[in-house]
Specification:
about 15% strand, 7 helices, Arc Repressor Mutant, subunit A, homodimer, 2 domains, alpha+beta, DNA-binding
Chain lengths: ~170, ~170
DNA sequence: GTTATTGCAAATGATTTGCACAAGG
DNA sequence: CCTTGTGCAAATCATTTGCAATAAC
């Protein structure tokens, strides 16, 4: 699954940074390292928690600023999962055109790629007089747990309880 | 385009209200009247402005509470257009399964329905082991203005400038 | 050195909520 | 009446920002 290494990402970011006249910092390196060491989606807050568990430091401000930088450099995408916090997806470097299926009950997210839906997307877009650009399709559905047990609140609970409670 | 009248919506809401042991109020009537008198998408703030231009009154608090009520009664849908403010779509009573195409430059939104994409959506969902539920597909693209003039900032500007500026 | 970056604390802004008063049924 | 709804102002909470100190290059 991991075709692009962290070193590749760092290279790309450094290129971007140089082109823009910006600077490489230990905070940015640490954040990139952390984000791209897994393929998990995350919120700013979840990432902040993860950083605090390492021996690197970065303030929330720096974290938010770095997230914006990575999105601008097209290394990270903001995806709309609904909810109050923005969610970030680090997998677009590996899989430039994937989409998301979301359980409307528990919030579980599955990534998928499908040629047919891309073609159809393209057709619909042109038919409406638009020019196809960024592919971004979100399907809402019910996951297995919901199907078999009638309900699956585990994940939604954990997502709700992840609200920030004065964690400095 | 308008197959469902405001009276129908009022009836549905009143049924919902009775079933829940809630109460019909002039504020709720006025808000419903206003929302369903057009097929425009809107934000809470835009709706508040519209209300102030009528001779009915409703506070922001009541407005937010009524929006939640309407969403719960399935007469109104929250749609994700990105951006800080939630957007509401009053057209799901008329067209229960439509989707949205959005210009990534100016934010212009077009509704569409397509049987093929619904079927495909269904297939993908089942293939991933989910049960199809709410159809909600958002396609991002570039609109005509962008195509012909290279850029179309009109709407995005107006959307940005619609940020609330101490309008009591 | 010069300019970008950081961390802090304060600001922002949409939405929510507590509470006292008003008003449906 | 009794309970729900309303309006106000205050609270929330994710995110952004001003600013002085710090660190790339």
């Amino acid at each position: 699954m991991e075709n692009v290494s962290i070193a590749d990402i760092q290279d790309k970011l450094n290129g971007f940074i140089k082109r823009k006249g910006l600077r490489r910092t230990p905070q940015r390196d640490a954040i990139v390292e952390l984000i791209f060491s897994t393929d998990e989606h995350f919120t700013a807050d979840e990432l902040y928690d993860r950083i605090r568990r390492t021996n690197s430091t970065a303030s929330r401000a720096t974290l938010y600023r770095t997230l914006s930088l990575l999105v601008e450099a097209d290394l990270l995408h903001e995806i709309d999962l609904g909810g109050d916090q923005k969610t970030y997806d680090p997998n677009f470097v590996d899989s430039p055109s994937h989409n998301h299926l979301i359980c409307i009950d528990c919030g579980k997210v599955v990534e998928f790629a499908d040629d047919n839906i891309e073609i159809l997307n393209d057709c619909i877009t042109r038919r409406l007089g638009f020019r196809p650009a960024k592919q971004s399709i979100r399907i809402e559905a019910c996951c297995e747990t919901l199907r078999s047990k009638g309900i699956c609140q585990d994940l939604i609970k954990s997502r709700l309880s992840s609200k920030r409670i004065n964690k400095k």
